[in-house]
Amino acid sequence: MAVSDPRSSAVTPFFDTHCHLDEGSWDDSVDEVIGRARAAGVRFMVTIGGNDGLDYARAALKRAETDPEIWASVGIHPQHATLLDDDAYEVLRELARHPKVVAIGESGLDYYYETAPRDVQQAALRRFIDLARETGKPLILHIRDAYDDCLAILESHGRGEITPLVHCFTGTLDECKRAVALGCYISIPGIVTYKKAGEIPDAAAWVPPGRLLIETDAPWLAPMPYRGRKNEPAYVTFTAEKVAALRGLSVAELADLTTRNALRFYGLPAALLGERAA
Ligand SMILES: [Zn+2]
Ligand SMILES: [Zn+2]
User: Fold this and answer.
1) Please, which residues bridge with residue 13 across strands?
2) How far is the CA of 6 from the centre of ligand 1 (A)?
């Protein structure tokens, strides 16, 4: 009998639901970074095309087109919300129709840096909610120091009509509960492995099983034991270990739960799990 490969179909692979593959400036090529992810059992990734301009959205889509198990999102980060004029919106709207674009974002509200005025961030968020509704694709939210305002917008604009995700969750347990009540999925970042992780471990333990995702947000926020270094999708396994322990699950169970949730959130067929990568 052949020795079992840990990545055989008996073990569900990991899904890094949020990474920025083409903003990494890693020492190695992105292909090597992706290769290390796959070697670690991280088979699926969504690369976020949503930083400070349309070039990132285009780069993310281009990346997704090169790999059958990488998909893209398109949006503009709230810190750069001033870039969202009508022309930019139309470009993103066009990109969003592409079948490899599986989500809108990241959008949201970031009052920590506040590089864009709050009202401009809020207006951009409303437009991205509209785009999510129009395309039927889910919305990736970036929320920092802005839960009250962001959840109020979600409640009054598009509630029940879109599927939102709070990526890189760093709020309180109460904020987590309020977001879930509004239909949000919650994605737990590597910060959950830090000694000072606030209430992230409480939230990671509490999130209803059907709403839980994990992510790296690479190249930022590497989990322990790589904190301070460049993060990469391979390290989502450390976050998985921590979240599994918090929930009293094995890592394999946690991988199975979060990967199936991620496929469902991004509108991808669970049948992907039955197929092997070429
Ligand atoms: Zn973010
Ligand atoms: Zn991000």
Assistant:
1) none
2) 31
